[in-house]
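Appendix B. Raw example, untouched.
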Amino acid sequence: MRLTRQCEIAFAILATCAGSPTRVMTTLQVAKASVTTKDHAAQVVSLLAREGFLRTERGRGGGITLALPAADILLGDVLRRVQPDLVQRAGQGDIFGHGVTHHVTPAFAIILFAAEAAFLTFMDRFSVADLVGEAAIQRFACLDCRLLDPVLRKRNEVAARTALPGNPEPLAAPLPDRPCAGVS
């Protein structure tokens, strides 16, 4: 999986607009914030407007604003609309491998489809609002901790309920329901 430059620019433009919600931005301003040309920014702005993420107004006093609250624009939705071919399913077959080419097994096609779904589901946990401000930094302080790993969480829950013979203490303490202690 690889994000295109267009997708990176789209996230930068949305974050720039979310960072100044009361301000109408120009294409040149979002281009500078996105470190791209005005023409490329204009193409991405047009795409984001067509997809319903941005509102644009032409002419004097016009510009670019978010069409929805930043918290309502999920990163997974942006990915699905800006880069729909993010993950090309194995050999273009269906999830059960029918019509698969390139010597890919049906099992691999299913695994690849599941990985794509997991990635997009994970991206749906976050919104454009998470890309700006201090709260965003604090929210990501625990991204790699055991709290967010469902496999480790499940194993820990089983271990917490299981005691060794002759030892009434569980094998592990359950994980907290809140992020790491360093995160408020």
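End of appendix B.
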